[in-house]
Amino acid sequence: MSATGGGRAAGTAAVAFVVALVSLGLSTPEVSAAEASETDALQGADCVDYTSLKGKTGSQRDLRNALRQRHFTIQGKRSSLMRPVDWDADPFRSRSWRAKLHNWSWMDVLLVGYQETGDRAALELARDLALDWIDQNPPSPDISWGDKVTGDRAGFLAYIARASGCRGLLSDEQAAAMLDSLQTHGEFLSDPSNYSRSNHGLFMDAGLMLIGKYEPFLADAPRWEKLGRRRIERSYSRSVDRKEGVHLEHSPGYHFLTLGLLQAILRLTDDRDPDLLRLRDRMMEVAGWFTMPDGRPTELGDTNFRRIPDWAIQRAAGLEGISPTRRSGYGIVKAQGGYLSVAAGHHSQAHKQADELTFELFDRGRRIIRDTGRYGTARDPTDPAKVAAQEFTLSSQAHSVLVVDGQSFDTSAESFYGSAIRATGQGAGWYAIEGTNPLVARQGVDHRRLFLYRPSQALFVVDIVRSDTPHSYTRYLQLDPDIRAKASGRTVELHADDFRGTIHDARTPWDTGTPELVRGQESPLLGFYSQHGFAGFKPRYAVAYTSQGDDVDHVAALRLGSSAPLKAELTTTSRRRVRLRVGSSNLTVTRDKETLSVSGDGPLAATATARTAPPLSARRNALAHVVAAALAVIALGGLTAWRIHRMRSRRVRLPSFPPLGTVLRAPVQGFGRAIGGAIVSTVLAVIVLVERVRDASRTTAGTR
């Protein structure tokens, strides 16, 4: 195809696209053939290094699979891309897979391979696939020209064109086709009517900046690069809390995603903008708070369960206390290997779920209360079952929240309120987080929730609800899929291979039944966890408590590491003070503006550094080792005593002359006494250890 012919074809496609979509109000840029001077500039351009925007490195095996068999990994699935590629393929009925097919992120393995090895075959294959895509995908309203998809692809196309031109791998027609497509990409991304104010806009801006970096000889490239830079600064300023450094799209997962993009942009463009650098540093500082002890993000909101960067894990290891994220709608506690995260924020509709005052709990080495996560990869807008599944993950019933009259929270644009985490604090070894749910105010309900958390021991979830008229209330607790649950009256027993605990909900006059355990319920959907990738849902236990009234108070007590339930009673529930009585102990939480203080008496008031019982498995292992050592010493002593007895029974006597008999008889007698002493000492050591284990157990039992 000639340069002129390519321009005519692209122009015809653009006209057809405008005619087809004018009724939809979509805008499409004009496409013009590349100027001869631009083609010449591309063919004569210097070679530049490639650095992956995605932060990937690829592997030699992946590169060989791509070069020999045309196999690529797309959205975690091995996919064959033989030319001519069927770019309309949808083998997994997945919108996410199709988006990845068209954003060219799978090209990364070829470009990294080319950069590291200089293998022309890798670059030639990337060139051929790029030209194949250009030939078959004129602008359209399909996902192939979605906002973020186009922004991602623009950077890959710009580099492939530049590298192929500098290595002499492009004919004039091929160079013109690539430059024409880059022109189309640039005009689409710069058109205000196509621009997204969500994180998608950031990727569109990055695409414009990379076109400017790799193709500066395009007439519009300098303008696009400046526009991308200006918009990206404005977008980050709007979507990130400048003081706390938290991305405001209601998802720790997207905090890491947009931070990674900002890091890549600063790295690839050699940008030293002080404002962006300060913003990057703040976002990195707060990222550690979103990191659970297992090296994965807390799955609040629209977050995938995936490993996060090593630098974030390292930063997380040094954090302890309460996070500085209250303004952004998060309350987080990290202490003694325990982790509690609470969400209550509504800044926009971007990735917003109906999850006010939901929470996640990690303790004793595992996730216990777990949010539903992101139903992303498996979704398909043409499959009713998948549509219903995605709607479930967005609903209140998929989160650990309090629902009024069975209605999921209204998260429409009229309900933006910012942050509803009202106060945080600590004292007497406890951490406290208080928040409200503004979204139930439309139903005439005032809901306040208080979390009292003592790592490795207990968590109290206090719900204080006020209304002028009676309502029904349902409180949900969503358990980790690996935890087994069994209801016994007001108590739910929790079991896993390495964990045991209880949830006890104090009886109140407003209860309408005992706790209900639901697992894998199909209609309506309840008791599911959204697995990453194409796996879809995984059944898990959800605990549901129901009550009815106007003014109601509830306290659910989660005990960690013991099957004996904690039984708590609310005695004070004023705006300024909440008091709980647990056995012989009292806990009082006092609020002064945005600060909570906790005080108490009895076993519950021990300091945060008080000795806590090790897990049951650890205690058993320690005791087993000591008992084994004791048995070994006893066996050795018994063997020695038997040998002495045998010597005496055989009448083996020492020489009769006094000097030598005296010399030898004393050590033998001393050795016998030493063995006896060792046996007695070992028995005493076992007794002392058992008492210490019991003392440690009493420390935990003190919260009973």
Give a structural overview.
The protein is an alpha+beta fold and 704 residues long. It is 39% helix and 22% strand. The strands form 7 sheets. Strands 16-17-18-25-14-13-12-11-29-28-27-26 form a 12-stranded mixed sheet, with no helix packed on it. A 5-stranded antiparallel sheet has the order 3-4-5-7-8, with no helix packed on it. A 4-stranded antiparallel sheet has the order 9-15-24-19, with no helix packed on it. A hairpin with a 3-residue loop joins strand 13 and strand 14. The longest helix is centred in the C-terminal third of the chain and has 44 residues. It is elongated and about 85 Å long. It starts with a helix and ends with a helix.
How many strand elements? 29
- Rounded to the nearest angstrom, the radius of gyration is 33 Å
The fraction of residues assigned to DSSP E strands is 15-25%
Per the principal axes of the C-alpha atoms, what is the gross shape? elongated
Distance between the termini: 80 Å
List unreliable stretches of 5+ residues: 1-32, 607-623, 652-657, 660-664, 690-704
Q: How helical, in percent, are the residues?
A: 25-40%
Strand order of the largest sheet: 16-17-18-25-14-13-12-11-29-28-27-26
What's the mean pLDDT score? 84
Derived from helix and strand composition plus strand pairing, the structural class reads: alpha+beta
Biggest sheet character: 12 strands, mixed
List the total number of helices: 16
